[in-house]
Amino acid sequence: MAERRRSRTSADGGAGWVGNRFEVTVGPVAHGGHCVARHEGRVVFVRHTLPGERVVVEVTEDRHAGFCRADAVEVLEAAPDRIERPCPYSGPGKCGGCDWQHVSHAGQLTLKAAVVREQLSRLAGLDLPVTVEALPGGPLRWRSRARFAVERTGGPGLRRHRSHDVVLLDDCPITVEPAAAAVLGQRWPGAGAVDVAVDSAGVVTTTRLDRRGQATSTRVLRPGADVPEEPVGRAQRSAGGRDWEVEGTGFWQVHPAAADALVGAVSDFAVVRPGETVLDLYAGAGLFGGALAPGVGAQGRVVCVESDAAACAAADANLADLPQAEVWQGDVDAPGLTELLDELGRPDVVVLDPPRAGAGREVSRVIAGAGPRAVVYVACDPAALARDVAVLAGAGYRLEALRAFDCFPMTAHVECVALLVRA
Ligand SMILES: C[S@@+](CC[C@H](N)C(=O)[O-])C[C@H]1O[C@@H](n2cnc3c(N)ncnc32)[C@H](O)[C@@H]1O
User: Given pLDDT bands bounded at 50, 70 and 90, which one contains residue 1?
Assistant: First the structure.
């Protein structure tokens, strides 16, 4: 099969089926926001469609023997969940920022649940029902933190799907208005990208990045002010009944309601008791550790581990009123975690919220080896979660409960919180 494809691509300059149009009946949704169809024995990953639809596709990429990628460019039979796109910039060949502008919000939740269920089944051998919970506020104007690209002449926008091309934008309807206006309402000559974040006090922070992705300057715009200023102090956020400080465009949940929802789920799963020891791995500004610290009380201990120096400084400030909580700056990797556990002893609860790649095999094994009564895993990629759940299962932990949240409406992303207990 691989050879057949190689000879076909070399014969036509490497394009294969690119540009070809044909009709398909669309099959199930897959991880990544597309649906699976088949044509002449090959898998076609189709964007801008829904399971069950009959569509004409145009092939956009053909680089692999087993599959190609395509956009649905004409809908012959629409699924009941199809809607008019609220964003004029989305659609085949347009902005690559959202996956599911053409899907009702209820339909998006169903698709996300199917993806989580399929990943857990395929990668962890688990068959369980999944419901994705909507957050308050609807599917638009939720993005409080974003990175916009800047094209050569200084125009801001977002990249086309799987491309470096920048689609120029006047607005981004999933981004909160002050953030969209602060970046898209002006030109950024010489910049490569602009990060923007709006905190809970309405202060807009913009950070200009050069073409290598290095931050070159940061400005804040206070509510009611016309002129941006140099930042003084950190951005303010609130979640779980506490106020938090974070670096202006440093990590914080993007959806304004997400931190509250995740803190609630983590607290409900962890059920910490006075005197217990909690390890909060990939702790950011200390969100989960800080939320759990009151529950372990003065006799307990919460250790937050985070690699980023600015996030650690913010966590130190956030946890200053909780003497049972401490912040350790370092990488969560197998040797570092083993060393920490040697010093700490057996934790009762491990909370982890790793980046997209997940914790990985080695770190998951060290966590299981430490023998906590509960592991609470917060995951922004269900595939990484499923892989790590499989490793934890092999080391004696079973998935006891799972909640999933729609923290990224209009996109295929979903946030999960899983509780694993010793089998
Ligand atoms: C998804 S964020 C979670 C932050 C925090 N739990 C929250 O909800 O605000 C992941 C965090 O892990 C940190 N991080 C990434 N890789 C790391 C590593 N190998 N060791 C420690 N921290 C890491 C990042 O700096 C980031 O703050």
Answer: very low
Give 212-275 as a DSSP string: TS-EEEEEEE-TT-SS-B---S-EEEEETTEEEEE-TTSS--SSTTHHHHHHHHHHHHH---TT
Residue 282 Cβ contacting ligand 1 at under 6 Å: yes
Ligand 1 centre distance from Cα of residue 306 (Å): 6
Please give the Cα distance from 286 to 301 (Å, whole number): 14
How many angstroms is it from 348 CA to the middle of ligand 1?
21
pTM, to two decimals: 0.94
Q: What are phi and psi of 177, to 5 degrees?
A: -55, -45
Burial degree of 86 (CB within 10 A; 0-12, 13-18, 19+): middle
**Tens-digit pLDDT profile for residues 256-285:** 999 999 999 999 999 999 999 999 999 999
Angle at 215 between CA 237 and CA 305, to 5 degrees: 50
Q: Is 287 in the pocket of ligand 1 (CB under 6 A)?
A: yes
The yes-or-no verdict on residue 12 having pLDDT over 50 is: no
Domains of the chain, each with CATH number or no CATH? 2-79 (2.40.50.140), 145-237 (no CATH), 255-422 (3.40.50.150)
pLDDT of residue 240: 87
User: Is the shortest distance between the CB of 353 and ligand 1 below 6 Å?
Assistant: yes
Query: What is the number of other CB atoms lying within 10 angstroms of the CB of residue 56?
Result: 15
Mean pLDDT of 139-163: 97
Q: How far apart are CA 407 and CA 163, in angstroms?
A: 25
The predicted pLDDT at position 158 comes to 98
Catalytic residues: 380
What b/e sequence results for 238-275 when a residue is b if at least 16 CB atoms lie within 10 Å of its CB, and e otherwise? ebbebebbbbbbbbbbbbbbbbbbbbbbbbebbebeee
* 236 Cα to the center of ligand 1, angstroms: 19
Give me the pLDDT at residue 14, please.
54
